[in-house]
Write a structure and sequence with these properties.
610 residues, alpha/beta, Rossmann fold, nine-stranded mixed beta sheet
């Protein structure tokens, strides 16, 4: 960005300087033709000054960007001077005080047009010539009132053109800058090597952001997108460049959720809520959103002191309303301590998000994963039932569907246990399982890994070009988890969230590189960029994750939530085997662990050596 002294001059001062130059040129022309200065003949000849200046103002020549001279400026000056010429012909024919013949008026007008347009053209060349470094080239997406404001505040950039989807605006000008359709703009973006695209749309939807992003991604131009995350009110007076932010990958996944949360307010207001794993990514977002519905008490439980400390710091900054929050450093495997917490608080709602979830770590730590993901979850549902809580929500994952890794297998066992236990104890309506795919922003997510790799200059590591995953924003996933509690008269307790289409991880890597303002570097091209390295698929990974065991699922009244029906056999035997596994866990062999998972988890075949 250019920091020279001219760009630091206030815009009103610049306007005054240009107006003074115009005034000077008018007097020079008049003196050349009539051998007298206007200032000495103000009574008789002041219209020669005021009329052109007023016309220049009316046609916006003092509100435009002075570093640009376009056809708009040319025709605006010409129009002003033609009006001036016609007006003075009429005045001189009516009022004998102003005795100017046709030739004098024509010559004055011609000289005024040449000098004013020449001065503006020379000024634009001068302003562009004295820059200490080349200005970044930008396009402004949106030719409304906000786009017009951008021409005044983004004067440290070279504005190439506007882009607008409104066909009525296309080919018009704003402050001398042409408005183009996307079809015409995309070639210009590549040929002019545009550095930034500023989205000047007040209330832009996530879908519109994605549309613009994909348009730019398709032409493979390494420009950076900036937009306004929020714009309160209709006043533009305080709007400036700081309102713009670079488009982040989180914005690419956000979807517009048009849900009325009145029922959620009724659900949680003055209620006592427990969130296990409450300092983790999902748990913290659950805690944050629940706080917005004024619970009587929220207990955030986690086994990590560091994460619990960070959760307290984060929520203390975020919360505007007063909520009674208790932060409990506790392990869900400790049944006695867990029971004391249930006794003390008499919870109504429990969100069970505590789990060991990192696939590669769990593969190398099978026994701790069984203890936390299965036995800890068994503790939660037994205490939930014993203390007659109102609702228990278990946070599951798409990796639990026909899993090929141990983490997914443990989550599937817990899904089965919760379904069977709730059915046998007649509490199916009180227990729900919510299954969804990857959320960006969670610890260890591929998006966070890619961000770090981009910051380090690459390469981005992808296991397989065909690898596909579901993705959703963490706030959207949690909002839908909460809304699943408002669904009534459902004859199943498994919910799946609509994750949209699967995304290829390789395409994800390319888009993240593009979004950072870089290009994908390959061996065939000479341009600089960031490489993508294919490292090979791990044996515990699936190319495509799934959300459903079978196709027996139905829509609900909430658009993004499905119900799932699953048939479960050998219920009593399963519960007995879980109890045996629990009692004999310290002595059980790895062979018996494998046998147990192969018997009850559909699709599970692999067990890495521990």
């Amino acid at each position: 960005m250019n920091n020279n002294f001219i760009e630091k001059i206030d815009r009103k001062i610049k306007q005054l300087i240009v107006l003074s130059i115009d005034f000077f040129l008018i007097n020079i022309i008049y003196y050349f033709l009539f051998k007298s200065f206007l200032v000495s003949n103000l009574v008789n000849y002041n219209l020669f000054f005021f009329v052109p200046i007023i016309l220049f103002f009316l046609l916006g020549l003092y509100q435009t960007t002075f570093s640009v001279f376009s056809s708009y400026h040319f025709f605006s000056i010409l129009t002003s001077i033609v009006i001036f010429f016609i007006l003075f012909l009429l005045i001189t024919s009516i009022n004998q005080i102003y005795t100017y013949n046709f030739n004098e008026l024509f010559l004055f007008s011609l000289m005024l047009f040449v000098l004013i347009s020449g001065q503006r053209y020379a000024l634009s060349i001068f302003l562009n010539f004295i820059k200490f470094k080349k200005k970044d080239k930008i396009m402004i997406y949106g030719a409304g009132s906000l786009g017009l404001k951008c021409t005044k505040i983004l004067n440290s950039y070279e504005i190439i053109s506007f882009i607008d989807d409104d066909k009525k605006k296309v080919n018009r000008n704003i402050s001398g800058i042409k408005i183009l359709s996307w079809l015409n703009a995309k070639d210009l973006i590549s040929s002019k090597k545009v550095n930034y695209v500023f989205i000047a749309i007040k209330k832009i939807t996530p879908e519109k952001k994605r549309e613009i992003f994909n348009k730019l991604f398709e032409i493979n131009n390494d420009c950076i997108i900036k937009f306004i995350p929020s714009f309160e009110g209709d006043s533009l007076s305080k709007f400036n460049e700081k309102n713009f932010q670079e488009l982040k990958f989180e914005d690419f996944f956000n979807r517009s959720l048009r849900l009325n949360d009145t029922n959620l307010k009724k659900l949680f207001k003055n209620k006592k809520v427990l969130v296990t794993g409450g300092a983790g990514s999902i748990g913290l977002e659950l805690s944050k959103q629940i706080c917005g519905y004024s619970p009587k008490r929220l207990v955030i439980m986690d086994n990590s002191e560091f994460n619990l400390f960070n959760a307290r710091q984060y929520l203390s900054r975020f919360l505007t309303n007063k909520v009674n929050i208790t932060y409990k450093l506790e392990d869900i495997n400790n049944f006695e301590s867990l029971e004391n917490i249930f006794k003390k608080h008499n919870f109504e709602y429990i969100f069970h998000a505590a789990a060991l979830k990192h696939v590669k770590i769990v593969e190398e730590n099978i026994r701790p994963a069984i203890k936390t993901n299965i036995f800890g979850s068994v503790n939660i549902i037994k205490l939930f039932h014993k203390y007659k809580c109102k609702k228990l929500v278990y946070i599951s994952t798409d990796k639990a569907v026909r899993p090929t890794n141990f983490m997914g297998a443990t989550k599937r066992i817990t899904e089965l246990y919760y379904q069977i236990y709730s059915k046998l104890n007649l509490i199916t309506q009180k227990v729900s399982i919510v299954r969804f795919g990857n959320v960006f922003g969670s610890s260890g997510s591929v998006i966070n890994i890619f961000k770090e790799q981009i910051n380090n200059g690459g390469p981005l590591t992808v296991t397989n070009k065909k690898m596909e995953r579901y993705f959703m924003s963490i706030s959207e996933a949690v909002k839908l988890v909460l809304f699943s509690n408002t669904l009534k008269k459902i004859d199943t307790n498994i919910f799946c969230l609509d994750m949209g289409e699967r995304i290829k991880i390789y395409d994800l890597a390319k888009k993240m590189i593009f979004l950072s303002g870089n290009r994908v570097k390959n061996n065939k091209s000479n341009h600089t960029g960031i490489k993508i390295k294919i490292v090979g698929k791990y044996k515990s990974e699936k190319l495509k994750e799934e959300l459903f065991i079978n196709n027996n699922y139905n829509k609900t009244k909430i658009k993004n939530i499905f119900t799932v029906k699953e048939d479960i056999n050998n219920s009593n035997k399963f519960l007995n085997d879980i109890n045996d596994l629990y009692k004999n866990f310290d002595n059980i062999s790895e062979t018996n662990i494998k046998r147990f998972f192969r018997e009850y988890v559909e699709g599970y075949k692999n067990l890495s050596k521990s």
